[in-house]
Every structure is written in structure tokens, then in C-alpha cells.
Design a protein that fits this description.
This is Trk system potassium uptake protein TrkA. There is one protein chain. By secondary structure, the protein is an alpha/beta fold. An eleven-stranded mixed sheet has the order 3-2-1-4-5-6-7-8-11-9-10, with helices on both faces. It folds into two domains: about 120 residues, Rossmann fold, CATH 3.40.50; about 80 residues, Regulator of K+ conductance, C-terminal domain (Alpha-Beta Plaits, 2-Layer Sandwich). About 25% of the residues lie in helices and about 25% in strands.
């Protein structure tokens, strides 16, 4: 997979390092000469250019990329890069960094963003996920398709504990994608039985989140 990253700061370089370790091709683009530190990520390609300029993106051959990551510290730049990547070059997957939570509402399909990553929101979600049992926690928003990745830890008193996945009447527009049970990560099948303490990860439409939380938190009748 070929990935272009706009922004070669600490965030961009860290992402590049992870992707390279996983065997992907990475191109780092930044307009600041001081950001071009080839020795820090020697296996990446580097381009000194303004990622908001069409000529720069032509030079980067963005049409060959499977993913573009807009990872600069400027939300305006990240939005422009995302829009150009999607509309001018047809990049299949565009991921954008949100620096200011007040701007998060802009990072959607209208600006070419498939996945918006807000560090403050992600950190607060991880804190909630660590301490919450029985409460739905939104981990990530997928702009394309209007869906969220949400998590809920099944409480001990849940009526669904001991129930097969296939016997649960799940809400529409929701999909159980993973069960985390202790140190195990399970791909759910219809025959799997839910247990108290399971961390359940769903992709769900925002309109279904409340219904899903009520279903999972319902207690057994005395």
C-alpha cells in the first residue's frame, strides 16, 4: 500500500515509521525545509513541497496513493489537502488530523475526509473506555457512511450475559465487529456466547447508539 503523509512533524514521522514497519510505501510531504529530516525516517520518500498546491501533488503522484493522511498542525491545511486528494486525485481513503476540536464538524465527506482523528476526543474516549462499564463510549467517527466506532463493556448484571450473538435482536444499522475478552480478540460468530466483562466494539449509525446502549445495559429481571 502506498501512503502519502502531508506534514513531516513529530506526528507525521511517527505515523510514517509505523507504516514502514508494516511493509507499506510512505511519502512524507512538507513545505518547511527544517521539517525535511531524512535521517529520522530514512526508508520513507521525502518531498519538499506545499501539499496545498496542485503542482506539488502532481509531483507526489497522489493518484498512485491508496491512502492520504493530512497530519499537519494546521486544520485549514488538512482540510485543503483532504479535499484535493479526494476530488482531484480520487484517493480511496483520506484520513485527517483535527487539531482544534471546535473544527471537528468540518472534517466530513464534504471536505473529502473519510476518517477524522481528533487527539483530544480520542484521549477522552480512551479515559472513558478505561473506567466505564455499561456506558457506550464513542471511539472514532467515520465521516463516509455516517457511522461511529463505539465500545461498551458488558456489565455483570446485563440481561445479554449468557446469550448467543445470533440470538440478540441487534438494532438496524449496527454491526458487532469485535469481542475483547481478557487478552483474547474474538471475531464474533452467531454461536459465540456473550459474557459479563466482554468489551464489545460496534460500528453503528449515530441514531442507533442510544438504542444499542439500552439493549446492552438492560438488567436481568429479578
Amino acid at each position: 500500500m502506498r501512503v502519502a503523509i502531508a506534514g513531516a512533524g513529530a506526528v507525521g514521522r511517527s505515523i510514517a515509521g509505523e507504516l514502514l514497519e508494516n511493509g507499506h510505501e510512505v511519502l512524507l510531504v512538507d513545505k518547511a525545509p527544517t521539517a525535511i529530516s531524512v535521517e529520522r525516517v530514512p526508508l520513507a520518500e521525502w518531498l519538499l513541497a506545499d501539499a496545498c498546491e496542485i503542482t506539488s501533488l502532481d509531483e507526489a503522484a497522489l493518484q498512485r496513493c491508496n491512502v492520504v493522511i493530512a497530519a499537519t498542525g494546521d486544520d485549514k491545511v488538512n482540510l485543503v489537502v483532504s479535499l484535493l486528494a479526494k476530488t482531484e486525485y480520487g484517493v480511496p481513503r483520506v484520513v485527517a488530523r483535527v487539531n482544534n476540536p471546535k473544527n471537528e464538524w468540518l472534517f466530513n465527506e464534504s471536505w473529502g475526509v473519510d476518517v477524522a482523528v481528533s487527539t483530544p476526543r480520542l484521549m477522552s474516549a480512551l479515559v472513558e473506555e478505561a473506567v466505564s462499564v455499561g456506558d457506550l463510549v464513542r471511539l472514532m467517527r467515520f465521516s463516509q457512511g455516517d457511522a461511529n466506532l463505539v465500545e461498551l463493556t458488558l456489565p455483570p448484571e446485563s440481561a445479554l450475559a449468557g446469550t448467543r450473538v445470533g440470538d440478540v435482536d441487534w438494532p438496524d444499522d449496527t454491526s458487532l465487529v469485535t469481542i475483547i475478552r481478557g487478552t483474547r480478540v474474538l471475531t464474533p460468530s452467531r454461536e459465540d456466547v456473550l459474557e459479563a466483562g466482554d468489551e464489545l466494539l460496534f460500528v453503528a449509525a449515530p441514531a442507533r447508539e442510544e438504542q444499542l446502549e439500552v439493549l446492552l445495559s438492560a438488567t436481568r429481571e429479578a
